[in-house]
Amino acid sequence: MYSQMQRLPMETATGEIFRYDPHVSEIHGASIQVGRLFAHAYRYESATDSDKVIALLEAYKNLRRALPIDEKRSQMNGDRVHIGASAAHKATQGW
Questions:
Q1: Which residues lie across from 82 on neighbouring strands?
Q2: DSSP β-bridge partners for residue 69
Q3: φ, ψ for residue 78 (rounded to 5)?
Q4: Do 2 and 23 contact (CB within 8 A), yes or no?
Q5: Beta carbons of 72 and 94 less than 8 angstroms apart
Q6: CA–CA separation, 13 vs 77, rounded Å?
Q7: Which residues touch 52 (CB under 8 Å, ≥6 apart)?
Q8: Tens of pLDDT along 20-76?
Q9: What pLDDT score does 21 carry?
């Protein structure tokens, strides 16, 4: 069933993708959480535990790569942007 959901047309809004594929929503939520952990570790622990900061950044990037590409946004700016990119970026900035 999951493989069928992956073939959804990307013309739909991000919210619609989340509604049809809860796995995508869970991955996005996890990327937000890991992004926040990265932001905190980068600010407060990078001098003492750089390996932890790098590991969190790699985990964040891997979660983001697991998400589908947001075709509408990618066509508008020419980059390959994964769904939920704005919220994920804000999380890495500590917002």
A1: 69
A2: 82
A3: 80, -5
A4: yes
A5: no
A6: 16
A7: 41, 45
A8: 677 888 999 999 999 999 999 999 988 889 999 999 999 999 999 998 887 776 666
A9: 74
Q: Annotate 52-90 with b (16+ C-beta within 10 A) or e (fewer).
A: ebeebbebbeebbeebbebeebeeeeeeebbbbbeebee
Contact between 73 and 12 (Cβ < 8 Å): no
Count the neighbouring beta carbons within 10 Å of the beta carbon of residue 39. Answer: 19
Tokens of 48: 């003492």
The burial class, CB within 10 Å (0-12 / 13-18 / 19+), for 11 is exposed
How far apart are the C-alpha atoms of 40 and 19, rounded to whole Å?
30
Mark out the alpha helices in the chain (DSSP H runs): 2-5, 14-20, 22-44, 50-65, 71-77, 85-92
